Amino acid sequence: MKVALFIPCYVDQFYPNVGIATLELLEKLGVEVDFPLDQTCCGQPMANSGCETDGIGAANLFVENFKDYDYIVGPTGSCVLHVRDHFNKIQQTEEVKKVRAKTYELCEFLVDVLKVEHIEAEFPHKVGLHLSCHGLRGMRLGQSSEIVGQDFSKMRGLLEKVKGIELIELDRKDECCGFGGTFAVTEEAVSVKMGKDRVADHVRHGAEVLTGGDMSCLMHLGGIISRKDQPLKVMHIAEILNGATL
Amino acid sequence: MDHPSAAAIFNKDEARTEWHDKALWYVRSKRDLSAKSIPEWEQLRQIASAIKAHALSNLDNYLVEFEENAKKNGITVHWAQDGKEHNEIVHSILKAKEVKKLVKSKSMLTEECHLNPYLEEKGIEVIDTDLGERIVQLSKEPPSHIVMPAIHKKKEDIGQLFHEKLGTEAGASDPQYLAEAARQHLRQNFLTADASLTGVNFAIAETGGVVVCTNEGNADLGVSLAPIHIASMGIEKLIPKAAHLGVFLRLLARSATGQPITSFSSHFHGPKPGSEMHIIIVDNGRTEQLGRDDFRKSLNCIRCGACMNTCPVYRRSGGHSYGYTVPGPIGSILSPGKDLKKYSSLPFASTLCGSCSDVCPVKIDIHTQLYKWRQIIAKEHELPWSKRQAMKVAGYMFSHPNMYRTAGKAGRAMLKVTPKTLVNGPWNVWGKSRDLPPPPKESFRDWYLKNRVKK
Q1: Domain count of the fold of chain A
Q2: In the structure, what pLDDT confidence band is assigned to residue B424 with cuts at 50, 70 and 90?
Q3: Domain assignment present for B313
């Protein structure tokens, strides 16, 4: 199985530790992982701003970088969703179709492809899980609270396998954090208020660590936490699953 | 004013923003409980969506069938191309009978057509009889929500308003007392009105009648007491058969407020003896929307308001921040079709979180349509120039790996040496209330080259 690691641009630049944790975690699980060196961005920032055509170059480059792998795995629901849903704007060659179908979010890959049953990690802390919208409602990594049906969450399922972890319950289990890409800047007031409310929910329920599958949401929430000097830390889910300590 | 500016003003009073958010979240929570009491909820949504798709695809036939059957029931049917024509028809009906006072039960369509100011100019008094509608009418504001038009007002605000307009005691804000005062005031108007106008929730092609859903019974009272009943409906309100009503009535109130059903589901199938009933079928841009493949599904909307209650942006910016008759997510996909320039900020008033699409009882892919409107807005040059240029540059950079890496390195280096106070200067909108992550010493790629790539 040839697996390529897809590290979103902002993770590459600002959160190398998340990339390292993802890589090490996959390696621990016996996967041989390659990191194509010429990767940049999936093109989502342009597309979500209405400038889909400006993202076409990035999309083509993405396909070029990843076309030869069986699976493409990234620690992000948002960028993966973009590859799957919005690469319909480039010509649908066999390569493009394959890349779209074979690009996985990390937790989804662990659960659905590797069928991981055991996680070698211990994290004896109170943890709040932020379910990022694109992973949740876009990729259906879990049941959103609006839908009537059996509740499930692939991320929560994995975290529950971590020794000593205590997952807290939130008042609003899957409300958006307010990041939203350029929304965070163009709708600054609402974005920040949404973020503050999410953080408050986690603080109210005693979370020591706020985790999630998308560093973009966590960058936004972490920025608010840091500015207000609040008593909790943000960590990507890959870090916890990889056995990080606080 | 665009949405971000109006939303920023709304957020200046943080406590009030929180109050607004919680009031609507409470309604969303009630909806959840109510929906989850129906095991076949998702199936109901699917059926409702399919009925709407079918009705919209065969609207030409169903409209004709509806008109024929309505006429057989003794109803006069009128067709209006736009809001202006709708208002003129209403006026001509009222003028023929020298109507001085019209009681209205809630109709978002007449809001859309701006009927009230039109009739008032012609010397006809219009009284909105839905309590929430009457509140916003008395305070000379548009509704801020399609189901709860005065949800932006606290009971103290309403107490003050009623004190000024209806003579209630100063400082009184007990909801029961205020509601009773409104009831007495409205009762007088019901008794003295010469005509009534209602909206329409569902028009049934098979029977030629309309169904109006209210909690206050005001539609029934208005229609029963006045000698003229005008029902105004958009063309998309049609459903083929009476049997389909069950699907929609089960979904509507549960989605709107969490009630199993509205207190009144009133069926109007003809004039009462000695009186007139008119139905005005209005297009006002709907046919155009129907012709847009990507957006036609927006006409599925049954106006439950669930997308507003669930929208984290709506809850924290208020209905008035949208500046369109129908606010919130659904309004943000309907309004650009009316005036792309004027409403160009609305499809961006969303994080594309998708909650609206998941909550929608008729399965409108709202967040996907928001995304698609964004593409059109950019293409039609309605994006701010700076954003457009930034995206062009970003697009170019991300197509060139070397350039991306150089820019990343330079950015991180700059962040490292620049003092925090300077980073968070007024030019950095992000930094107003959020810190940037501390720049790491190397990118992941740099680390990978050092640690994994065999030399």
Answers
A1: 2
A2: confident
A3: no
In A, residues 80-119, which contact B (CB 8 Å cutoff)? Answer: none
Other residues' Cβ atoms within 10 Å of the Cβ of residue B175: 10
**Residue-range definition of the domain harbouring residue A72:** 3-113
Q: What is the ipTM of this complex?
A: 0.97
Q: Give per-residue pLDDT as tens, B116-160.
A: 999 999 999 999 999 999 999 999 999 999 999 999 999 999 999
CB contact under 8 A, B4 and A138: no
pLDDT, tens digit, 9 for 90 and up, residues B307-319: 999 999 999 999 9
Which contiguous run of DSSP H or E holds residue B268? strand B264-268
The single-letter code of the amino acid at A178 is G
φ, ψ of residue B6 in degrees (nearest 5): -65, -40
Q: Are residues A107 and A46 in the same domain?
A: yes
Residue B398 lies in a domain: yes
Q: Are residues B140 and B268 in the same domain?
A: yes
Q: Do A183 and B348 touch (CB under 8 A)?
A: yes
Residue B104: give its domain's CATH number. Answer: 3.40.50.10420
Q: Is A12 on the interface with B (CB under 8 A)?
A: yes
Cβ contact B86:B199 at 8 Å: no
* Residue B125 resides in a domain: yes
Which range marks the domain in which residue B134 is found?
Answer: 38-284
Q: Is residue A8 part of a domain?
A: yes
User: Which tens digits make up the pLDDT trace of A165-191?
Assistant: 999 999 999 999 999 999 999 999 999
Answer left, alpha or beta for residue B57, where phi above 0 means left and psi between -120 and 50 means alpha.
alpha
- pLDDT the model gives residue B455: 56
